[in-house]
Amino acid sequence: MDSFVTKESRQAVTLATTRAAEIHRTQVCALTRSVHEKSLFGDIPFSDAKFDRAFDRTLNAPEQHLGLVVALGSRVPGCCYCSIGGYFIGDGARIVSVHAICVAPDVSDGLLGGKVALRLAKGIEVWAQSQGATHILYHVTAGIDAACVDRFFQRIGMKQIGGDYGTKFFPKI
Predict the structure, then answer these.
(1) Are 94 and 55 in contact (CB under 8 A)?
(2) How deeply is 24 buried, as exposed, middle or buried, from its count of CB atoms within 10 A (0-12, 13-18, 19+)?
(3) Distance (Å, rounded) from C-alpha 141 to C-alpha 27?
(4) According to the lineage, what is the superkingdom (predicted)?
(5) Hey, is 77 helix, strand or coil?
(6) Is the dihedral angle over the CA atoms 33, 39, 41, 43 positive or is it negative?
(7) pLDDT tens per residue, the chain (173 residues)?
(8) Pair 98, 82: CB distance under 8 Å
(9) What CA–CA distance (Å, rounded) separates 52 from 137?
(10) Cα-to-chain-centroid distance, residue 135
(11) Which residue segments constitute the domains of the chain, with CATH numbers given?
(12) Per-position b or e across 104-130, b if 16+ CB within 10 A of its CB
């Protein structure tokens, strides 16, 4: 297990990776909201109801939906949400779609943030393999430090298979 040594206490604190459970709901919601607010989609109102439905799917249909948390003691500095399904015009594929990876903004730029992200990526891979996945697709669309995200994925052996492009429509006044 990885450990993180704080400068203040010099005590090793262990990172723990586990499936999200009801006990994590409040922290995962707060973390997801904080990352959402800094993202490209931050102007879209966060929906607690939609969050709850997604979180419930991870609890009630764990073979199709993954909610993963990385905990540092009682704190959750990282989480993700994934689902698995088929390829829309093909047979036999099992594709994991990683809809969100959230790393707490106060740790995302440092070593701890990298360890949290790595734990999430490895956990997604383990779950994907256990579900018989043929592919994992990370949908990187948040618009938060895309160059850093690209470097992270390249360092862990991923390859870019396309790009995310988008436009925003503004309501006519």
Answers:
(1) no
(2) buried
(3) 23
(4) Bacteria
(5) strand
(6) positive
(7) 443 333 444 455 699 999 999 999 999 999 999 999 988 889 999 999 999 999 999 999 999 999 999 999 999 999 999 999 999 999 999 999 999 999 999 998 889 999 999 999 999 999 999 999 999 998 876 667 777 888 888 888 888 887 766 777 777 76
(8) yes
(9) 23
(10) 17
(11) 3-155 (3.40.630.30)
(12) beebbeeebbbbbbbbbbebbeebbee
- For tokens 């106060």, the residue is 106
Which amino acid appears at position 144 of this protein?
I
Judged by DSSP in three states, 71 sits in strand
**pTM, full prediction:** 0.86
At 143, list the tokens: 């618009």
Asked whether 132 and 93 are in contact (CB, 8 A), the reply is no
